Amino acid sequence: MGTFGARISGPITGSIARSDALLSLGSSASRAVLMGVILLGPLWLRAPFANVVTARLAPFAYGIYLIHFVVIAYAARYLGLPEPPGAAGLLLWCLVVGSISLAYAAVAHRLVERPAIEWVRRRASRPPAERPPAGLSRA
Asked: Which of 68, 84, 61 is nearest to 13 (CA)?
């Protein structure tokens, strides 16, 4: 990983928050409070999270979460992107990492997640008589 990638990996991966038990607890608690305030707060506070764009991107959220740091690490090492000291560098990083992560998430959703969800739904919708006993499998 390039020097930029090495410098960002610590803060991004949460190693600073996990360096002290009290700091870790405070970090987790502050995130929980923020989510609660947004969820239970007024409509204007929820508006950025409840719109057409987020609804369209929601199926890809887990795939984006899984791959985005890998994309950051590879981009830092192989793409030679400028370190983002200013708005232009940060925008470039967001565009590159965001577009690659979204493309990966869309493919993973189509080829892995959607078939797995459909398989589980089919298995769960069978009448109880057709289901094997718990712990046994008819392959």
From this structure: 68
